[in-house]
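Running this now, will post back.
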Amino acid sequence: MASEMSCENTQILAKFHFQDPTEIEIEIKVKPTPDPQVSPYGVPSVEKNGATNPITVRIPLSHSFTFLLSPLSTAPHSNFLLSPLSTAPHSNFLHFSPRTHFTFLHFSPRTKMENAQIPVGTHLYDLPEQLLLRIFSFIEPTRARNSASLVCRRWRDLERRTRSSLSLRGNVITNPYHPHPFPRFPSVSSLDLSNLSPWGRVPSNTPLLVGPTLPNSFPAVTDLTLYSRDPTVLIALTHHWPRLKRVKLVRWHNRPSGADIGSDLGPLFENCTEIEEVDLSEFYCWTEDVAEAVRSHALVARNITGLDLMLANATDGFRTSELISISEACPNLRRLIAPCAFNPRCIDFINDATLLRIATNCTHLTTLHLVDTTPVTLNNNPGAANNLQENNPSTITRTGLETLFSSLPLLTDFSLDLSHPIFEAGPALEVLGQRCTNLIQNLKLGNFEGVCKGIWLHLNGVAICGGLKSLCLKRCCDVSDSSLVTIGRGCTRLEKFELIECHLVTELGIQKLAKKFEKRLRQTKRQTLKDLTVSQCALISAPALVKALEPLRDQLQRLQFDCIWTELDPKMKKALEEGFLLWPYKIWLELSELSLWLPAGEFLSPLIEAGLDDCPNLSSITIKVEGNCLTKPGPHNFGINALSLFPDLSKMKLDLGEAIGYAFSAPPFQTDLSAWEKFYLLGIEELPSLQELDYWPPQDRDLNRRTLSMVAAGLIRMSDSLRNLFIHGTTYEHIMWNFLDILSLRDAQLRQDYYPAPEDNTSTEMRDESCARFELKLNNIWQPY
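Update: finished.
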């Protein structure tokens, strides 16, 4: 059949020959008009002498095709190019030479029409509604979703109907959509309400978002994160979502005085009978509350498969009777994380028999994390015999570990962090590796001896676990350089490795381990070690560590170490001052996250001199400072402007929460914390790409205050690229108003996420009206883009 189609300035003659049931032959002749005119698409047509140019092409009949016809040159008898186009948005508007005219032809094998029509102005809107919803469901980045929702009203509705997770911020008293009702998100299954302000407090009147508004707007929620200062919050919300599967509770305030044992969790188990996972890692309560709540709701507890009981600021761990009662009430547990009392000087401490009872009651456990929260108690004589480590063994023995590993055949993630040492633990780890060779993937060992002896060439200890992907060795006093070499030969799939307080390890062992993984990368073409942490190792300095890790610079994506600087060689120091380096030029191409620990008063500028000056893809950095800030800082600043060498650095966490000083009036010859905030923040305006800042102000422990000063607010205000600002502390209202001068700022929050959170509700920094006024003013500022 043949079909002639015309489009103002161009005539197209198309002949379709169905000679084969699976193939079609198309012959197309294009005859442009002789006079140059402007086409309907705004592109000048081609000047021709009426010549026709036949085109023949064969295509399969399995798909619908859209073709582009364009001349290959501007000659009078030039050939036309027929090429398939993608269905991407705005693919209709392709740019060629200024004198080129193009015409679209759309053909579908299912429609054999005598007179085909050329679609004009085809848009993404022409797709069916279900297909558009399917396309929007694949958008994962939050920023991309937020941008898509601003295109038009239809895209906004499509984005709301397909969003699966959402974190709400702002004030619970005001409705940001007034006078319109709160929008509906029918597909949101994960909802985070822990960042709603005022932080941890419910006003006297019933707030809008805590009533029936949220359940009506989010009917499909199965995963809920909530700040629960007292049981009234759970009572007001949980009965609206009876089918919750996972709940995370957050609370940094003190437990309500006079509350009954288990009352904090009672409403959760009473209203949500299908709950499967409970996360209390950031929830301050007593261990007795958890055990009593689980015992009192035995039918609900049988459905629970995950318990994260790492209570906020937990100093007293779970005892034997409590852990056994929890394991008996939750026989289907697959994930258990809990702080425990392993100290034999405590009553009802955890021992081998306790671990065996847990394994017997919960045979399906795949993740088991137990952390000792009780510190080692020593007498006044450090050299006494009863203070030596070998005279204070742990209550967990090698035999107990072997029995535990034999009783849990599905174990994939195991963590045991103790304050007292376990002697000769290597054979127990070999049992774990032999029984679960390819099953065990994550392992964290704290205060283990004999983890890997590194003798001769045979593998032993943890090196038997060849399927490990994550390994953390903490306070393993006999781990040496030879141990790292053996681990590198045995754990060939290792992707994450942490080395904390291992004082026999030197930079030579780190270098040998790095060369092992570099050789494996060349042989297998597969990156393995991507995440490395080396912290509090006495024999390793930061410059030596960076130099030892050079073989891994093409595969490391995350690096964490302590900034313990050593004096540079005089020749190297002179070369740096003159502007050139003595070592070869190195690029850390894959490094995207960097985490640093510094003692109070240490400088950041030597980081560049150590060899980390070229990290083109570094996007996130975490800086944690600890120490005494009671004296005055030095005359020079911290050197945060040195980070301007990283062009893609967009996120920074500056944690001064463990820097101790005076919040207000300081004694003579000493200074308050505002001078130290100036020391650390000076130069932050020189980071051109910084968009998100998490800042923990230094604290005064005597007053339990972590307050942002006026000096710090003024320095942060100078950063004109910030979009998100999170202050993990308190401040005054007039100080927060400084942030309104940042034109690009979209979100600014105060988070009192430290224990115990301030209880003073009368000062200007804690009033609900102050937070509401600032948030309203921030939301009403005109945004340039």
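The mean pLDDT is 78. More later if anyone needs it.
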